[in-house]
Predict the 3D structure of the following.
Amino acid sequence: CGDLGGRYRYLSSHASQSFGHIMSASLGIATRSLRNVRRLPSAFIPALLMPVFQVVAFSGTYAGVTQIPGFPTDRSVNWYLPMAVTMGASFAGLGTGFSMIRDLQTGFYDRLRMAPTSRRQLLLGPYIAAWVRACIAVVLVTIFGFALGARPVGSGVGTFSLFIAGIGMATIGTGWGLGLAYRFRDMRAAAIMQLTLFLGLFLTDAQTPIPLMDGWLIYVARWNPLTQVLDVARIGFIDGINGRDLLVGIFIMVAISAGAWLFAFTGLARLDD
């Protein structure tokens, strides 16, 4: 028993040190990424202002859309705020991909790979940085949305579900951006990141509810998994979205996030080939 107890204490201590080492290295990488925001604001400010511009422009330009019979809210900003928040959070995730491209081109990332760090540490650091940047984007865009008249409905769970959707989209964007950066290793990846992000979000019901659509976009938006993610963001702002939609959306976010992480992990493994 004494021998088994000693082994248990050794394994527990070793696991604790291993976890602490992983977090220490990952936080160091994340801190460096966040410091680059201050050093290169031109790489962060436009991505932060874009969703703010969208919520202002869409809610004002399309204010009359609420007069269409069947539109699920009487406040246009309630419909467009979740779209802007998820897009801003996505850009926060893609921002880590842009930073990775610079590190790969300057050779800095090669030095990180030569350091005594694991692939988990090299991936977790950018994810932590993306989550912090996403929180900034979600808070800022939500403040602008409330200033323009956005108001939660029901129990007021809207802001919480909006935050969940933002973190989920940042996680997806980070994995997708890193995976492309690892594979292309140059600015070609940046163009693909932005193009696929816009296509993925705008080929949903981001601008118009599916029952009010016409033509081929109905089928694309209905089968686009990001439509369910937007349901998570909207559940507290739009009547008619229920708890089942919330659970389905969260499940889809987790599934896509896992796939994006695997895409990034296999891309990082290619660098060793």
Notes: The chain has a mean pLDDT of 82. The CA atoms of residues 52 and 141 lie 5 Å apart. DSSP finds ten helices and no strands in the chain.
